[in-house]
């Protein structure tokens, strides 16, 4: 008897060419697909893994979600342990559960939460180069917090999406945007929670915010960028190394913001 499994994954994106499977390239989806099919003794047709969304090369995940249909009904924890015995050391299944047959890791998403880390050291730390962005100039956090208020709510983020995006609409809703200074690590840590994010949106938003904090943009510049609707004026895209997919939300996870991304915006 077959069953649909939902997994929560964590992975170090440093040595992956992103999440999405690609021929002759090491990806998260590719490694997981190989492991799942190996556990199922290489069935025909092969098992397909569906993720909540893509992460780019170098981007990390603390809580990526996937699902797949497995030809045998085995205990969820046995699935977790079995996959972890096969998967490479830079990825791990944190949670496995048997989902409802209609559950879909991508289409049922109601929100996502991302974290971005910036090392503020004068010199680039070689031990952080794969896990944080770097900014050596003085930063005024008060300006950043003030500017972040303009991100909250529903907006057209056309100035904050990289070329190559194939979505129908650039309108997204951000529920929460915050930044904290971690003195012990000499880092700024940004966090964003919304109903969905565009291609490179978080990295572009952080680039704008860090320039506001450094005084090279006015505090109200995000409002100007909304009106312009042109990616060129946002300029900077911070490095992939500092970005982490922290959490993927589904119906019931967050009663305050239960709305899925409308189909016309996907």
Question: In a nutshell, what does this entry contain?
Answer:
The protein has 266 residues and is an alpha+beta fold. Helix content is 20%, strand content 28%.
Characterize the biggest β-sheet.
10 strands, mixed
The CATH topology of the largest domain is given as: Alpha-Beta Plaits
User: What's the β-strand tally?
Assistant: 10
Strand content: 25-35%
Mean pLDDT: 94
Radius of gyration equals: 19 Å
- CATH arch. level architecture of the largest domain: 2-Layer Sandwich
Helix-strand makeup class? alpha+beta
Low-pLDDT sequence parts: none
Oligomer: single chain
Mind telling me the CATH superfamily name of the largest domain? Answer: Pseudouridine synthase I, catalytic domain, C-terminal subdomain
The succession of helices and strands, N to C, reads EHEEHEEEHEEEHHE
**How many domains, in number, for the residues?**
2
Specify the CATH class of the largest domain.
Alpha Beta
Distance between the termini: 33 Å
Shape: globular
Which bin fits the share of residues in helices? Answer: 10-25%
Keywords: Isomerase, tRNA processing
GO molecular function: RNA binding; tRNA pseudouridine(38-40) synthase activity
Family: Belongs to the tRNA pseudouridine synthase TruA family.
Function: Formation of pseudouridine at positions 38, 39 and 40 in the anticodon stem and loop of transfer RNAs.
């Amino acid at each position: 008897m077959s069953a649909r499994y939902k997994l929560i994954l964590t992975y170090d994106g440093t040595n992956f060419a992103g999440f999405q499977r690609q021929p002759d390239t090491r990806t998260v989806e590719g490694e997981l697909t190989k492991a799942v099919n190996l556990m199922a003794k290489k069935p025909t047709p092969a098992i397909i893994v569906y993720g909540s969304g893509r992460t780019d090369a170098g981007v990390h995940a603390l809580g990526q979600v996937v699902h797949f249909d497995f030809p045998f009904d085995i205990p969820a924890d046995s699935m977790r342990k079995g996959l972890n015995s096969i998967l490479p050391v830079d990825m791990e299944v944190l949670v496995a559960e048997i989902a409802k047959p209609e559950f879909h890791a991508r289409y049922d998403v109601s929100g996502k939460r991302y974290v971005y880390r910036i090392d503020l050291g004068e010199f680039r730390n070689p031990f952080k180069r794969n896990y944080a962005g770097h900014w050596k100039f003085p930063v005024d956090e008060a300006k950043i917090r003030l500017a972040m208020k303009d991100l909250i709510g529903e907006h057209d983020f056309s100035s904050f999406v990289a070329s190559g995006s194939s979505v129908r609409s650039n309108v997204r809703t951000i529920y929460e945007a915050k930044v904290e200074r971690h003195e012990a690590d000499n880092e700024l840590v940004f966090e964003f929670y919304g109903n969905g994010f565009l291609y490179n949106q978080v990295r572009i938003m952080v680039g704008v915010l860090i320039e506001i904090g450094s005084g090279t943009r006015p505090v109200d510049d995000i409002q100007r960028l909304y009106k312009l609707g042109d990616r060129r004026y946002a300029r900077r895209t911070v490095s992939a190394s500092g970005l982490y997919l922290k959490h993927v939300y589904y119906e019931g996870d967050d009663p305050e913001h239960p709305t899925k991304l409308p189909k016309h915006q996907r």
